[in-house]
Structure formats: C-alpha cells, structure tokens
Amino acid sequence: MAHPNLNYLRPGSLPHMYCPGCGVGQILNCLIYAVKELDLDMNKVVTIGGVGCTSRIPAYFNTDAIHGIHGRNLAFATGVKLANPELSVLVIMGDGDCAAIGGNHLIQAARRNLDVTVIVNNNMNYGMTGGQVSPTTPTGATTTTTSRGNIEKPFDLCKLVEAAGGTFISRWTTAHIPQLINSIKRGIMHRGFSFIEVVAQCPTQFGRYALGLRDPVENLRWLRENSVTKTQAEKMSEEELRGKIIVGDFVEKDEPTLVEQYEVILKKAQLIQR
Amino acid sequence: MAGIKTSSDFEFMLGNHAIAEGAIAAGCRFFAGYPITPANEISERMSERLPEVGGKFIQMEDELGSIYAIIGASLAGVKAMTATASAGYNYMQEGIEFAVATETPIVIVDVMRIRGAEQPTHADIMQVRWGAAGDHEMIVLAPSSVQELFDFTIEAFNLSEKYRNPVVVLSEMTISLMREKIRIPHPEEITIVNRKHPTVPPEKFFPFEAEEDGVPPMARFGEGYRVLYTINPHDKRGMITGDLEIYEKLYQRIIEKIIRNLDDIVKFKEYFIEDADIAIVTYGSEARAALEAVRMARAEGIKAGLLKLITVWPFHDALIRSLAERVKKIIVPEINIGKYYREVQRACEGITKVVSLPINRGRMHSPKEILSKIRSEM
Ligand code: SF4
Question: What is the residue range of B362's domain?
Fold first, then answer.
C-alpha cells in the first residue's frame, strides 16, 4: 500500500537529495501534514524556493512551483500574489536565501504585508555548498569559512521580521513537531505576511563543524536542550538566555494586506474613470 | 482618458508614455519597476493607467525585485513588463537567464543612456544580446520614433507570447524623452498574440515538450497542471536532472525556436536599396539621421541606400549577406565605440567591405556627418 501522503509529492521526484537525518525532510513532512489537515486545494498552491537544500522542497512538493534563483523568492512571490490573489503562496527557503542574499526582499515583503507564508529553515550555515558561515551562525561557531570562530553576531530573524512589519511570526525547531505543524497551519490561514522560522539540524555540515555532533539524533537533542519557550524566556536573565533558541508564536496582528490595499486603489481608479 | 486608448486621432505624446500605452494596448496588466532616469515616465504612467484597466503596478525595492515580480506575474498568467535604463539592466540579467530557461514571456524596456551623464548612447547593444549567464537567444526591437515605441511595444508582447522568450524594447534617451505626433490605432487594427494553452488534461501534459514550432504550450498557475519552473536543467516534465544530454537538448531547442523562425521575427525597413552602390545599416535614432543623409547623397547623385533594422537581435545573417551581395560597401553608424559593426562585418566577410562610423560622446550623428562618410567612402 502506498504511503497516504505520497500524493503530496511530485510523481517521479523520489529519491530526494537530502542527507540522512537532515531537518529539511522533517520540515517537508510538517508542511504536508499542515496542508492536509487544512484540506487546502493543492491546485491553488504555489510553492517558491530559491537555491540550497531547503529551497529544493518545491521540486518534491506537488504544486505549481518556482525554483532555482538564490534569494529572490519573495520578489517572485510578489508578482504571483498580485497577479492572482486567489493563489496560496508558500515561500520555502534557508537562512542564506532569506537573511543574506534575499534580506532586502524579506524586509520589504514584510513591510508590505504581502499575503504569503514564509517557512525558513535556519540551520545556521550554508549546507549545500559545504558548511560556510551564514548571517544566522552563532558568534564563535566554527564553520568552513570561520575556522577560528565566527566574529559576527547572528540575526534574530523573528525580531527582524517583526520590526519590518510581518503580521504572523513564530519560531520552532525540528524538535517541536506538533507545535511546528500547528504554526504552519495558522500561518497559512493568517491574512498577511506569515513568517515561520524553523531552527533545524544540518548534521552533515553545521553538526559536524560547529557542534562536533555528526549523529542526527544528537543534533536534535542539542536543539531541544537549547530551546526555551517564550514564557520561560520572560523569566530568564539576558545571561541565562545567551545561546538559547527562544521558541513560540510571537506575533499575530490583523492589518490590511498589500492585495487588499490595492483593491482600494483599483476602485478609486475605476470610480474616477466613470 | 479611459480604458485602453482607442481614439484613432493623432496625439502629441512623450516617447515613454507611448511605451506605456503600447503595453496596455498589448494586454499588459502587471508592471514592476524601480526608479531610474530616463525610464521613470514609463513607471509613472503605468502606475496611473494600470488600475484604470484592472491591472496592477508595484514599485519594487530594486531591479532584481522588478524582474522577478514580472516573471511571477507572467507565470500566473498575466502579461507583464518592466522598464529600466542601461545600469539597471545589469541587475536584470540574472532574471533574464531564468526567463529564458523557463520560457516565461516577459517584456523589458531598456532606455539606453550614459551612466552619470544623462546622454544618448547605443552602448547596450551587446549587453541586451549577451548579458545573461547561460545560453540564450534574445529578441530585441529598436524603435526610431515615438510611433515605433508604441507599435514595437505591442510587437514585443506578441513575440514574447508566441516564442515564450524575454523580449527587449531597446529605447534610447533621445526617443523616450521626445514628444512626437503619433496615431493610436483602433483596437480592431491591433493584432494581439497570446501564449498557447495546453489542450490536454494535467496528467497527460508535459510542460516542456515543444510542439512543431519549437514552443511548448503554457499553463497558468492555479489551473491544476502543477508545473515546476526551475532554472536548473530540466526534462520535458520539468523535473530537475543532472543528465547533460537532456541539458544539451533543452538549450538546443530554446535557441532553435528563435533561429528557425528568423524570417518571422526579424523585421526591417529598406530605403533606396534597390539600385544602391553603398548602404547604411543601422538602428534606432541613428536610422533617422542616416535616412536624411541618404536623401542628401541621392540629391548629389550618389546611389546610397539604408537598411534600418527593427529587430536588432536575433541577427539575420542571410538578410545582411544578401544586402552585401548587392552593394559595394556598407557603413554602420552607431552611438558607441562601434559594436554592432563587428556583427555586420562578420556576416559580410569575403563579400563586401564594411566600415564602422562610431560616435561615442553622448549625441547622435548629424545627417551631414553621415553624408561626408558616404562621400569619402565612394
Ligand atoms: S547538507 Fe545539511 S541541510 Fe543539506 S541535505 Fe545535508 S544535512 Fe541537510
């Protein structure tokens, strides 16, 4: 008997390219559970990825899709959503796509409250290219381009997106599967810019070079042990929070979306015309 | 001013506005752009006019944002355009590679200008041909007048829809910022071409399997065809592949769909060519000065002629060669260091002599300058 979720994968796309124990597979699995539980019309979903391990998800997830341009995911998404607001647009990317090369598109799309759902796999390094430092690599971490330790500070992506104007913001790790599925569902249903950060293991690169942990289970344990919920975090000092991953649903606001605002412009233009 | 401009009256119009009106007449309903002189009047006009016809405008955060937004809109089934000027076109090259590889119809306007000095140039003539990674053919139309800006913008949309390839309207600062009398045709006079749509259900559809004309039909996002558009090498199903034989065949087809249809794509105008001894080959604003120079030469009894290329790319070797066989000499005037000349010379190798007439100081040739070159080459 075929796996009940197999029809969510593009026919002929397996086997996938991921390393054993990689977090990307879990994220794809959570995404499938989310759209399945929402009973989303998969013919009306567009999935947009860029370049990297995570950004390859659109090649497996069976929807209309765009793949292969590093960092421009949200620029594509802007055109797709404005051209046909009926489509549910999912943007799937890694921390390189999202926070480095595509950083400007990220904050501008959040500022516009573009009605799309962004899922970012933050594995704290560039996995596909060999484990280089990224804008979310922790200070001090050893990567293939910071052999003497990372001297830069990492982005707090959720705070960045909140400051830019995102209206639904969550962070979980791949050690928080039910919470993650729930937040993806809420993000998809939310009107406006939804941003879900998933801190995930890349055992092959970040695990090996930065954590000294090659076993995926050890990596997951590290994620779980270093996570604190936002309620716990409220009671902790800055010192206690150093190096911790704060997880939870942070923002949920009701604000007009870009498409809704443009509808007003369309009405104005057509009234004047008559 | 309401809806698509339909008056058949003559109007006095700014070049950049004629591009915007041509786009709307062609069915363009999405525009994304980023401010840059001398292309701004195109964005401004589109922001005003698109909502009147139910279309959408957005000013993006940069040129990369603009080109990918129009690609996204086109994949969702809406005809889309962006406009920029030379330096801004640099950034768009990345998106052009994607549009070529995924066969997404888009129109890009490049209003050529010298960086830092807002003066005319033809310096982008090679950038618009070669400026993108990967293998590609480009379709580039070069207008000489405000009327042609309107007409060629419609033609650009039609060609991009028909061949599923990006098409560039290569304008120039001089023409874009000039006001001239133009005639807006009735809608029934305007030919509109739309991309082919699949005639089979999703389970029988191969999104990158070409029909006889070399072009595959294209489904819109949201219709259930669930197509993956990737820049990576992909097979006829659209699936990513590392098979280099499939890669080679894919790009062979993408190139051949243009090359096999040169006679349909390449448009030109001939003036006094029939009995000419010496011919001018040029494009854009230079064609105006050249035509005047040819008339002056004729008045002096010199048998000069002009081949004005409307489609500057793809390059039609056979067209240029057949001209070379009929004339003793060809002169190529351009506002740059003499770039297109090399292409003409390559096509005429061993048939006739080709002479470059470049001017690269921010202005076009005067007819007299071209005339004196004709005289000295006779
Ligand atoms: S390199 Fe890292 S992110 Fe990429 S597939 Fe392997 S484990 Fe996953």
Answer: 269-377
- B139 and B278 together in one domain: no
CATH T-level assignment (fold) for domain A19-273: Rossmann fold (3.40.50)
Phi, psi values for residue B311, rounded to 5°? -95, 105
Query: pLDDT band for position B1 (50/70/90)?
Result: very low
CATH number at residue B298: 3.40.50.920
Indicate if B173 and B277 belong to the same structural domain: no
Within 13 Å, how many C-alpha atoms sit on residue A233's CB side? 16
Band of the pLDDT at B2, cuts 50, 70, 90? very low
| Tokens encoding A99 | 């926070």
Residues facing residue A198 across a β-bridge:
A121, A172
B60 plus B163 within the same structural domain? yes
Name the residue of chain B whose CA is nearest to A269's CA: B52
Nearest CA to ligand 1 atom 8: A22
Beta carbons within 8 Å of A48's beta carbon, 6+ residues apart: A58, A65, A66, A67, A73, A76, A77, A80, A89, A90, A91, A92, B72
| In-domain check, residue B200 | no
Q: What is the pTM of this model?
A: 0.97
- Residue ranges of domains in chain A: 19-273
Q: Are strands B107-112 and B80-85 parallel, antiparallel or unpaired?
A: parallel
Q: Which of B141, B156, B189 is the last residue of a domain?
A: B189
Using a CB-CB distance cutoff of 8 angstroms, which residues of chain A are in contact with residue B103?
A: none
**What's the rounded Cα separation, in Å, for the pair B175 and B183?**
16
Mean pLDDT check: name the lowest of A207-216, B115-124, B212-221, B349-358. B115-124
Number of structural domains (chain B) is 2
Please tell me the residue having the least CA distance from ligand 1 atom 5.
A18
Q: Which residue, B160, B189, B218, sits at the end of a domain?
A: B189
Mean pLDDT, chain B, integer: 96
Say if the Cβ atoms of B98 and A77 lie within 8 Å: no
Ramachandran bin of A212, using left for φ above 0, alpha for ψ from -120 to 50, beta for the remaining angles: left
State both tokens at B42: 């195109």
CATH number where B28 lies:
3.40.50.970
Taking only the tens place, the pLDDT of each residue in B285-301 is: 999 999 999 999 999 99
Q: Do B222 and A64 touch (CB under 8 A)?
A: yes
Q: What is the mean pLDDT of residues B234-263?
A: 97
ipTM: 0.97
If you write DSSP's letter for every residue of A218-244 in order, what string do you get?
A: HHHHHHHHTEEEHHHHHTS-HHHHTT-
Q: List the alpha helices (DSSP H) in A128-176.
A: 157-164
Task: Check whether A63 has a pLDDT greater than 50.
Answer: yes
Residue B35 maps to a domain: yes
To test the pocket of ligand 1, the residue of A18, A92, A97 to mutate (highest count of ligand atoms within 8 Å of its CB) is: A18
**Is B262 a domain residue?**
no
Q: Of B79, B78, B80, nearest to B60 (Cα)?
A: B80
Considering only alpha carbons, which residue of chain B is nearest residue A78? Answer: B69
Do B183 and B277 fall into the same domain? no
Same domain, B24 and B163: yes
Inside any domain, residue B77: yes
